[in-house]
Write a structure and sequence with these properties.
mainly alpha, three-stranded antiparallel β-sheet, globular, disordered N terminus
Length: 264
């Protein structure tokens, strides 16, 4: 006797067929993602942190440098020379006096004026000072006063009153003749605090005023004449002219010396 099976519905038959043809599937597991560790960065030093704090407290420190720390021949102060100057801010009255004071009373000025006084003593120039230690001391004091008075007149006092820029902006481009001419012209042409070109009243009149003060105050009585004052004025302007020419080419000389030193 055959076994009688219960009737199977069409849905059940379809489910059975689907179950038989497709094996059960297991849920796919995504491979664990590879986590990359960010590179370790060194925390800023205490000096950097303090500098950032100072700048946040004092916005003035965020301004670009308007003066230099350079020295001519690694000795004489050259703080008012700007190399490759772009948009540098003008100097305030306080900054003008500060940088001139720093340069005028720099430690190098003492042996420099001592050297000039020694030459004057040897040549017995301005004989009214006399000879010996007393004469040398007077010459040293006169040279120190002459330089300091002129520095303040041409670099701080008149530039502040007339709103002129006492800095020398190096050209650095062109031929030797072009750059020399440019440097010499800065005695008569300067930049204003607003960035325009103007006659250099600070240099021309400042040196004249300082020559008059020095001649008629502490120089020997025999030298207190108009002709001697004009001579001192011309000497100061001539010395300043030579100085700006040296300032123009000193960066080239400095780079050459550095290159030769590295080649050794």
């Amino acid at each position: 006797m055959g076994i009688i099976l219960p009737p199977v519905s069409a849905q059940q038959a379809g489910d059975a067929a689907q179950t038989g043809s497709n094996p059960p599937t297991t849920p796919q597991q995504n491979p664990p993602s590879q986590q990359t560790t960010p590179p370790q960065t060194q925390p800023p030093s205490k000096e950097k942190q303090q500098e950032q704090v100072d700048k946040s407290k004092n916005p003035e420190k965020n301004k670009p440098e308007g003066v230099s720390k350079d020295r001519l021949f690694y000795a004489l102060p050259n703080f008012l020379t700007i190399e490759n100057a772009g948009q540098v801010p003008p100097l305030s009255t306080k900054e003008k006096f500060k940088v001139v004071t720093k340069g005028s009373f720099d430690y190098v000025q003492v042996p420099w004026y001592a050297f000039l006084a020694g030459i004057s003593q040897a040549e017995n120039s301005e004989a009214g000072y006399g000879q010996g230690a007393a004469g040398y001391g007077k010459r040293f004091g006169a040279y120190f006063a002459d330089g300091t008075i002129e520095n303040f007149m041409t670099g701080a006092i008149l530039p502040s009153v007339l709103k002129q820029d006492p800095r020398y902006f190096q050209s650095g481009k062109g031929s030797f003749t072009h750059r020399t001419g440019y440097a010499m012209s800065r005695i008569f042409v300067t930049r204003t605090d607003s960035g325009h070109q103007q006659f250099n009243y600070s240099e021309i009149f400042g040196s004249a005023i300082s020559a008059g003060i020095s001649t008629y105050s502490y120089h020997p009585h025999a030298d207190k004449t108009l002709s001697n004052t004009l001579s001192v004025w011309g000497t100061q302007v001539g010395y300043d002219t030579i100085t700006v020419v040296v300032k123009e080419f000193w960066p080239d000389i400095r780079r050459k010396l550095k290159k030769d030193k590295q080649a050794q």
